[in-house]
Design brief:
about 230 residues, alpha+beta, 5-stranded antiparallel beta sheet, globular, disordered N terminus, apoplast, secreted, Cupin_1, metal-binding
């Protein structure tokens, strides 16, 4: 076959295939007005299953399916990290199903931390409502840190899949809201995943990865056991 603008047909095919794979990593676009999620349909034969959820019969859908109440209530920050994330995803708001978005309220005690973590399926955009936050994310190799101190009204974006954090550097409580580009973005807290996995990662692996001795790994794993 003839080449096209300097590319062979096989190269063009590979580019198209790569683009298709990339696009498929995100929530698919809806092909109907809505698909309100339900756990179990009344009639399995006629039920539609989308994004891991069954769709409610459109004739039975109500305005309440698109409402979540209570995001005005502060989260409990009485924990080791001094922070709390209230995530409004498809499990709490069934009308979000197939729409590719979710929302979170983030509360921070003074010097509270939302520790380094990733959202494997969503980009996050955060707006500070009260307080002062030190935020940042780290790129893939080579690991460059992008960080900024945010004040009330400031907005910051964390690209999909990258490790990021927020730390309350103010003397009082802080509050932020975040939108995420997935109905179920997921979260992997780095320290918990590495030192608190079940079953635990081999100590030999962790010793070599972090270049520390067994006593340090033992101490860290004890911090993240249930």
């Amino acid at each position: 076959m003839k080449s096209f603008i300097g590319f062979s047909s096989s190269a063009i095919f590979l580019l198209v295939l790569q683009a298709t794979i990339f696009v498929s990593c995100y929530d698919p676009s809806p092909l109907q007005d809505f698909c309100v999620a339900i756990d179990e349909p009344i009639d399995y034969k006629s039920a539609v299953f989308v994004n891991g959820k069954f769709c409610k019969d459109p004739k039975l859908v109500k305005a309440e399916d698109f409402v979540f109440r209570g995001l005005n209530i502060p989260g409990n920050t009485m924990n080791k990290q001094g922070s709390n994330v209230t995530l409004v995803n498809v499990d709490l708001l069934p009308g979000l199903n197939t729409l590719g978005i979710s929302l979170a309220r983030l509360d921070y005690a003074p010097y509270g931390l939302n520790p380094p973590h990733t959202h494997p399926r969503g980009t996050e955009i955060l707006v500070v409502v009260e307080g002062t936050l030190l935020v940042g994310f780290v790129t893939s190799n080579p690991n460059k840190l992008f960080t900024k101190v945010l004040h009330k009204g400031d907005v910051f974006v964390f690209p999909i899949g990258l490790i990021h954090f927020q730390f309350n550097v103010g003397h009082g409580p802080a509050l932020a809201f975040a939108g995420l580009s997935s109905q179920n973005p997921g979260v992997i807290t780095i320290a918990n995943a590495v030192f608190g996995s079940d079953p635990p990662i081999s100590i030999d692996v962790l010793m070599k990865a972090f270049q520390v001795d067994k006593h340090v790994i033992d101490a860290l794993q004890k911090q993240f056991k249930d």
